[in-house]
## 1
Amino acid sequence: DTAVSQTPKYLVTQMGNDKSIKCEQNLGHDTMYWYKQDSKKFLKIMFSYNNKELIINETVPNRFSPKSPDKAHLNLHINSLELGDSAVYFCASSLFNQPQHFGDGTRLSIL
Amino acid sequence: GNSVTQMEGPVTLSEEAFLTINCTYTATGYPSLFWYVQYPGEGLQLLLKATKADDKGSNKGFEATYRKETTSFHLEKGSVQVSDSAVYFCAPSSKLTFGKGITLSVRP
């Protein structure tokens, strides 16, 4: 009965590779988000989708591309991974302007 | 736009000590205010909220009152436990970047 689930939980890969992180929510929310949290716990918004439409696209390299096939899913694809991409990536969902529900995070390590 | 300012961390306390984590906000209008908590290895979860001035949110022994006159939403707990060790984030409803939060460590 997990509300927001993201996979994989851990991702270890080499520089230059392409990887994807998947996120699904079963709460019936209309808005989904991707966040990046650095080693100092700073949590920054990357993207937000409302009803499958991109509504927030912060200053994020073009190598990051979100895709929302339907309201319950928001995936994140990352091309040409760099050392600085190492972080924990969180997916979240909410009804618009309401408290967010977060997944447990994907810990990305670039070798 | 709406934003919050949190006190600088980290905060280290002994078990059963009193906790206050300060949060002040600037806003146009009166947004809902939230405190989130992030336990080690997990995502953020909503701890408590207040939707209008003078509202008090409470959960798990934590409280915060939405004070319009001081534009504050300070988080308090009368007696912290080791299990309260976590990162705490204050946020208005419209703000999507949470900043770095406050790391609380409680010693036995």
## 2
Amino acid sequence: GEDVEQSLFLSVREGDSSVINCTYTDSSSTYLYWYKQEPGAGLQLLTYIFSNMDMKQDQRLTVLLNKKDKHLSLRIADTQTGDSAIYFCAEIEGNTGKLIFGQGTTLQVKP
Amino acid sequence: EAGVTQSPTHLIKTRGQQVTLRCSPISGHTSVYWYQQALGLGLQFLLWYDEGEERNRGNFPPRFSGRQFPNYSSELNVNALELEDSALYLCASSRIKGGQPQHFGDGTRLSIL
């Protein structure tokens, strides 16, 4: 079945750039998403990219999509301590309404 | 614009009991989705409702059920609670089924003793 994989942990210094990577298997996914989860909270939609795009930029966030390699990345510029959270990559499974999530990447930002 | 709202925020139940969780979608959204986030199991899709109908169901036993009301709000019911049902239950909504991004609420934390 469809699967989404992420590395589990990333540690960066405040002010550096963070890059969180994700691979997915469903080549028919129309949209790919990045969500953020802070402790004790729900999921916050950060950004999403349509499958016919290569790149999307939104303020400090840059999403890169390589459809050939089924690789998605999220770059956070000038990472702040408030960016510390778990970041989930997700793909939508066809027309089922089902989001398939990766395991989540814990981003630790050191002052 | 108000986001997705869920109630209650926390709930403690014992094995064998039944529970009802509630979700109000963003105004204008007709689709509601339910997910379970259990420790060690990640985020798992439970149910999708659109226009009052169940459109899809994840790999969960029948004791997990729900419904969507004419105002698009939704309930998730879990019968015969088991210890492994302890989890964060997240509700999401979207404007158009399937393609639009799903926006999530803050969830209901269910603990089974």
